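WARN  no MSA supplied for this record, continuing single-sequence
INFO  ligand: flavin mononucleotide
INFO  echoing inputs
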Amino acid sequence: MDTRPHRARSWISCGQIGNTPDNTAGVNLLNLDGQLAIGRGGTVTIGKKTPSPPEGFPLYAYVPPLHPENLGDPRFKKTYHLRYAYIAGAMANGITSVEMVEKAGRAGMLGFFGAAGLSLDQIEAAIDRLQESLKDIPFGFNLINSPNDPELEAAVVQLYLRRGITLVSSSAYLDLTLPLVHYRVKGIHRDKNGTVVCPNKVIAKVSRVEVARKYFSPPPEKLLAQLVARKMITAEEADLSKSIPMAEDLTAEADSGGHTDNRPAITLLPTMIALRDELTEKYRYSRPPCVGLGGGIATPDSAAAAFAMGAAYILTGSINQSCVEAGTSKTVRQMLAEAGQADVTMAPAADMFEMGVKVQVLKRGTMFPLRAAKLYDLYRNYDRFENIPEKQKAVLERDFFRKSFQDEWEQTKKYFAIHDPKQIERARKDPRHKMSLVFRSYLGQSSNWANSGDPSRKIDYQIWCGPAIGAFNQWFSPNRVRVWNC
Ligand SMILES: Cc1cc2nc3c(=O)[nH]c(=O)nc-3n(C[C@H](O)[C@H](O)[C@H](O)COP(=O)(O)O)c2cc1C
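INFO  complex generated
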């Protein structure tokens, strides 16, 4: 046997040297007179035949073409009839608008309408429009955990079931709730071949391993028993549910805009994939959940890195807020376009203010993060508004509320009278709770001012976004050095 090195070699003949516009061919790495060169096209010959330049060149490596539709897990794309393994994540208050969901769907991607923060009527109007316009093109809705308003969460699930919404992105759950399990298992049955069919699909968004474990497991028996006892599902539906995971698929959410645990993607995704493998082995699922990645994805490089790490699909949020389809204002888009990676920070969240939960927001060009932090600080240190030092109270009334505390309370009451009247009753007995509702009202309005582009309140804009926006701006910058030709 001839063991001399380089005896059997690959050669490429008729290849073109340098960059060509032919995107269908792969890329060849060649030896061109002792120098490395890139070529495309040609015929590869393996073995002793050695055509000499310019008819042929020694070939070091060949990289086949890889188009965006070839990225990601084919099972994921098949399940949702997608061309691309790409999700446009839900953004509250319709920032992920019907227009954005339509555009994503028509482009072969999956968009989740940003239902959080909207009324049932507004959500139903979005359902009307998307069912009418997209028909069989896939789309989904956000189902967000509402620990402060469990009735709303149950009502949203009823709405989705009634209107045939069969795909949701579930988010902000720290534990599985009865409405979420109800949604997932309602209608589960066996088809004529005996295969278990679960019509409602949940793509869970999770940043904690202990929560992912619940989603990768079958729906909890305790909640199934409650649903049967309340006649919300049949005993057969409960029984069949034991063979499926709670989530059809799961997005590991790393450091992102909005609610985030600021987890690094590079540690989170492999852990979630390993957990999926462990629980698939345990429960012997016929279709193991796909694991995708969201958080920080903003450029071709970060998308490629996510897929290289094993993401079945990718999900984006912050960068989509810059799109013309996003349900936000021109001013917000302009502010986002100027942001760098360090121009974001954590600020108290309106929905879970008392619990000290934070959201990631833009800090450049707005005082919101500082003001929100001040309000949380005051809430922690004083048991009622009246006990806050006079000077500080004056600042709040002049700069934050732009009206007296009493007038702000009257306005806050009007909001809660419609959305959650129990809060007003509680505030009557508990002055600290009253102060908290007024502070939360400022936080809530600050998102509306941003979305509507109220020029008089630009200084108070609350704009959720993560460092992804800075990475995107750098990549998109006209000053960026682009190296196209090697
Ligand atoms: C403005 C904004 C609003 C968001 N609102 C929601 C929401 O209502 N529900 C939800 O599940 N995720 C929400 N997210 C998170 C996104 O769906 C997505 O998971 C996240 O933005 C991905 O990380 P990235 O911001 O680094 O791209 C929001 C994100 C942003 C930027």
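The chain has three domains: 9-65, 69-327, 339-470.
INFO  checksum written, moving to next record
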